[in-house]
Amino acid sequence: MVFSDAEYDHVILLAHGSTDPLWKTPFEMIFERIVSESSRDKCSLAYMELSEPSLAHVINELDESVRTVAVLPLFFSVGRHLRHDVPAMINAMNKNHLKIELLPPIGDDERIRASMVSIVKNHLGEPE
């Protein structure tokens, strides 16, 4: 699957969430790297459940000038959450002035799968 080249006013990275605070560390590191190389005003990190900030909180905190938002799940694949739970959350948060689009999970991107293959092959002692 190829990701859209559409431009959005804001991109929300959506992770699952956990009661273990250490679980959030890799997502926070990814987010901090993105905003250090891009713009903090154009990207946020949210959690579907069990962690804060929630998706609803992030959307409610967006500036009124934001009109188009992409929610990019930091999930490997589509499961129940991305088929049912997250779309329902987004539908409940729709506002007249705001278009929220749920993108395919990051695991659907061929670049992620290729990176994973490369990492496994490296552990097997095989060249890339």
Automatic annotation (TrEMBL):
<dbReference type="InterPro" id="IPR050963">
    <property type="entry name" value="Sirohydro_Cobaltochel/CbiX"/>
</dbReference>
<dbReference type="InterPro" id="IPR002762">
    <property type="entry name" value="CbiX-like"/>
</dbReference>
<keyword id="KW-0456">Lyase</keyword>
<keyword id="KW-0479">Metal-binding</keyword>
<dbReference type="Pfam" id="PF01903">
    <property type="entry name" value="CbiX"/>
</dbReference>
<protein>
    <submittedName>
        <fullName>CbiX/SirB N-terminal domain-containing protein</fullName>
    </submittedName>
</protein>
